[in-house]
Amino acid sequence: MLLIKQENKSKEDILSYFFQNQEIFQPPLEKRVDLNYFANKIYENGIQFWAFFDIEVAGFAACYFNHPKKEFGYITTISIKEKFQGKGLGKEIIKEIFNFAKKNEFKKIRLEVNLENKKVLDFYESLNFKLIENENSSIFMEKYLI
Asked: What domains sit in the chain, N to C, each tagged with a CATH number?
């Protein structure tokens, strides 16, 4: 059974998830960010969404909803463990993020996708995210919620 929970876990839990699931990040997360710093930033400032399949953690997302005029929320990370990919968990996490954003009166959601990650880019396009900027090796996308 699938369950998505908005639950703020510890910095250590976030860091452990990143280290245990390095293979799902393309390119590797540790080559793009300092994992300790990133986990701490999410812990202190992010809204966390955890996907569970039965009792096992199946995925994780973190967002920042701190724009002063509530123009947009920002998905800083989203991932689904390999053995749970293709089962709709990504869409379910995104749906919970959209619900949270709407409930808190945010107008849109933004995110960044690495150009190398075609699978994820296609996923966001299927959810009607639109390109807003192309910078170096990243594409920035957004979706209006209202």
From this structure: 2-111 (3.40.630.30)
